[in-house]
Design goal:
Elements: E1 11-19, E2 26-27, E3 48-57, E4 71-74, E5 98-99, E6 106-110, E7 125-132, E8 136-144, E9 151-156, E10 163-167, E11 174-181, E12 186-194, E13 201-215, E14 224-231, E15 242-243, E16 248-249
Parallel strand pairs: 5-7
Antiparallel strand pairs: 1-2, 1-3, 3-4, 6-13, 7-12, 8-11, 8-13, 9-10, 9-12, 11-14, 15-16
């Protein structure tokens, strides 16, 4: 993320370069517009990346890049799992689904134990179960706590296989929700998946919520509808602080 102290109205866009220590500077294809104050950068676990940026005004004048890196970050190679992974196969399989209560949101991250899968600690799926009561009108929500952490939420019937509906964010920074009325008492299942297969790490935290909206009497028409996802603007990877005559930036390197 970054800030602009003065002259914000005259900025057309920002340009960013990256390099690995000792390497050449490379232009990023993304050029955040003048109103942007954050962006997402995808790195590789174990990689160190350096950053520098400049502003370009509305008539095309660009400030000079400084000669050295303004900030750098190490994308940590290992990660710390959340409280719900459990012993193998854990909540990667429906048999190890973690139980959540209606009205109590829970936090997960996209990190798996090193003993699971290929050892890369990539967490592809989190299974969750909950108890539904006939007539309860529920709203399911999936919300990234940190940017680049969004999750696709898919709701299944009590057999864990019959599809009911989904809440699908439109980007790796997006939120989404699903409204549904419980047709019959039972234990239902939610499958959470990364919206982007590059998402990985301790800080890729997302929240799952099940909210009781209201209750209807048995026999009332039951329907489900996915609410439009609400996109979250933002960036995640780069943060620097520097002061200049016309503007001030603030960034902080965050690795996953």
């Amino acid at each position: 993320t970054w800030e602009v102290d003065q002259g914000a109205d005259g900025i057309n866009h920002f340009e960013i370069q990256t390099s690995e220590p000792g390497g050449d500077w490379v232009d990023l294809a993304e050029k955040p517009d003048g109103s942007a104050r954050q962006m997402v950068y995808w790195g590789t676990p174990g990689q160190t990346v350096q950053f520098r940026m400049r502003a370009v005004d509305n008539v095309g004048n660009a400030e000079e890049y400084i000669s050295v890196a303004e900030t750098s970050t190490l994308f940590v190679g290992s990660c710390i799992v959340d409280a719900y992974e459990g012993s193998d196969p854990g909540n990667d399989d429906i048999s190890g689904a973690s139980l959540m209560e209606v009205g109590t949101p829970v936090l997960h991250n996209w990190c798996a134990p090193v003993t699971r899968g290929d050892g890369s600690q990539k967490d592809n799926v989190d299974w969750i179960s909950f108890v539904g009561t006939t007539g309860d009108q529920l709203r399911f929500s999936t919300t990234p706590i940190n940017l680049g952490s969004a999750a696709l939420l898919t709701l299944y019937d009590t057999d864990g296989a019959t599809f009911i509906g989904e809440a699908r964010p439109l980007s790796s920074d997006g939120s989404a929700s699903l409204d549904w009325t419980v047709p019959v008492d039972g234990t239902y299942f939610i499958r959470m998946e990364r919206i982007d297969n590059r998402i990985h790490g301790t800080d890729t935290i997302y929240q799952v919520g099940i909210e009781l909206k209201s209750k209807v009497q048995p026999g009332t028409l039951i329907c489900g509808a996915a609410a439009l996802p609400a996109l979250l603007a933002g960036g995640y990877a780069v943060n620097k602080q520097m002061k200049k005559t016309k503007k001030r930036y603030h960034r902080e390197a965050l690795g996953r």
